[in-house]
Amino acid sequence: MSILTPRGWSPVTRHALLGLALGGLLALPLAAQAERIFVSNEKDNTISVIDGATLEVVETISVGRRPRSMAFSSDGSELFVAVGDDEAIDMIDLETLQVVRSQASGDDPEVIRVDPNRPYIYVSNEDDNIVSVLDYEARTLVTEIPVGVEPEGLGISPDGRWLVSTTETSNMAHIIDTETMEAVHHRLVGARPRHVEFTHDGREAWVSAEIAGTVSILDMEETFDVKHTIRFDVPGVPRETVQAVGVALTSDGRYAFVALGPSNRVAVVDQQTYEVLDYILVGQRVWHLALNGDESRLYTTNGVSGDVTMIEVDGLRAVRSIPVGRFPWGVIVEP
Amino acid sequence: MTVLSRSLRWLTAGGVAIGLAWPAIVPADSLATITLGYLGMERPDDREPLSVLDPVLDDEGLQGARLGINDNNATAQFLDQEFVLHEAEVPQGGEVGEALQSLIDQGADWIVSGLPAEALLEVMAHPALGDRVVFNAGAPDDVLRGESCHPNLYHTTPSRRMLADALAQFLGYKQWDRWALVYGNTDEDRILAETLRAAAERYGHRIVGDKMWPHDPLARRAEGGFHAIQREIPVFVQDLPEHDVLVIADETDYFGEYFPYQTWAPRPVVGTQGLVATPWHRAHESWGAVQLQRRFEKLADRWMTPRDFAAWLAVRSLGEAAARTGSVDRDAVIDYMLGEEFELAGYLGLPVSYRTWNHQLRQPILVTGPRMVASVSPQEGYLHPRTPLDALGADEGESQCRF
């Protein structure tokens, strides 16, 4: 798509300007929102903090090397950041916005998830073919769960019963029983599976695959099989650049949003029918997504253009792009 | 005899590695097995890198195949499948057929070849081969994908033409379109020079002048070092017409490394030395490549080379097809490999797949300096009705391959 764009004007900038112009005319968007958005900048070793009311970066937190996945502690007092090159999880106090402690995580932590019931952090260790389970209160390693080659995506069911780990080279979703901490089912999904997101009722796990450019829907009630595969076809965009990465699901079961990587689009999918409803143009190489507290906004990280796009869920419009650090990877909104 | 003893040694090493990495979790009798053979050739004594910084390797390609087996088995263990590798090396002056036969005797149903073109053609014509599929992970010759193509021959290593096109696209992006060409006196280099001319024509470059470097490969490293080089090179290239880049064609690495910083005009050196087009490089770490680099280094105690990468791709192609079809049946696996659905993650940003018309793996190509990747081709803006990847190498319409 950017082939068609005159040099010096990234699609997102044009889009954002258009959005601003419309916004100014109609005086619609940007109602005050007292929420903070955290963005991990993979190449800057920082976390950008965006104020939801002004949509500006208000704070930049220094963390360890190569920050990627983030998660909140269950009590909401701390933000955990996987800092891959330091082989640790940095823990940020949400009052002071300082890293207050750091816990060893094993080799190259990329994606983390927090257990809703126990003080556990699940970590995918890409180099070791394991998922590590850390206790962040006792500050111990609880166990290590062997999975396929290059574990990447992790998703945990809302009740904490199931953990799904994807392995990028095995192209599998490994379904882990969190009672026994063992992988009990293994299912092939699309090539290079990246991310897992459970529906809010816990009945499905959505697994995106970067190279295949698909999302596989796993039945988490009975069979644990892939019951549907969503494909994306963005008009006028080379098929190979359509790569599925981040997934966000609204709690009302209406929309699913899928970040489509270097096609610079976010797909809007009907969560019930799996039909692709729309593609929203955002920044370059859109990677991860997060909905805000009342699900009125969707934030995207755009790795190559180094910004965050704010999309209004009502109307499905990209409204603003916010410059952050270099190679923004993950995004999470304070609940 | 030499073949057998070598093969046994390799087999033992490979077997131990596999055993350690993947303890069987399913009883062996219920496993569906794919047995591969890696067929390599001993390095000629005079083939050594010009720079003393590059290690002299005797297990290139083979280690890539071993890693592919490990990666396949990591998935196969969950699917009641199993991959087994046997290994054979043709000694210098030895019989290719003998080595092939030893692999087949051990049960190899699929062959991964690290052989040069001539020996590979011998394999394809050998009666013992039967209908076994051979993956070419070593020979860049376009003729193997053209007039000499074979329905049972697949190519995971890019052709010379693909590499030349990848470089030409990048130079097009830079608008460095006046090339001066210096090529070696080997057969490979004469072919490469022809290929570079074709790529220049396809992508609108002009070769303003060319010269052959008259060099005796046996005299390598005995040149007298930079004292002589510093005087010799500028004089040699001085009479070339005004150009943007100096393109070197030196596949066997016997003189090209001398050229950077020694040119008459201040011009970058590209081609087989300097800025090169290559399917794999240690400096490449994007798209998760760092994971593959680390896995390889853990296994082989050295960096992964393009030949290792091609062998890894061959083994992984089988692994992917067997996993997806749930079958180790020859025809089922081949059908899947050639089908629309086949997409292998090659750590190059785009999925790689086989061209149906000549069985060449279409793949992005790195354009890289010695220490840092400069770009990856296909370059933006070079369009193709099927996929931009098919703008690299012989396209369907121009291919001379008729199965």
| Largest sheet data of chain A | 4 strands, antiparallel
CATH topology of chain A: Methylamine Dehydrogenase, Chain H
Give me the oligomer status: heterodimer
Helicity level of chain B: 25-40%
Give the CATH superfamily of chain A. Answer: YVTN repeat-like/Quinoprotein amine dehydrogenase
Q: In the CATH scheme, what's the topology name of the largest domain in chain B?
A: Rossmann fold
Give me the strand/helix succession of chain A. Answer: HEEEEEEEEEEEEEEEEEEEEEEEEEEEE
Mean pLDDT level of chain A: 91
Percent strand of chain A: over 45%
What is the total tally of β strands of chain A? 28
Helix content, binned percent of chain A:
under 10%
Number of strands of chain B: 14
Would you identify the regions of chain A where 5 or more consecutive residues have pLDDT less than 50? 1-14, 16-30
Q: What does the largest sheet of chain B look like? A: 7 strands, mixed
Helix count, DSSP H or I runs of 4 or more residues of chain B? 10
Question: Strand sequence of the main sheet of chain A, in spatial order?
Answer: 3-2-1-28
Across the major sheet of chain B, the strand order is 7-6-8-9-10-13-14
| Distance between the ends of chain A | 35 Å
**Total domains of chain A, how many?**
1
Q: Note the overall shape of chain A.
A: globular
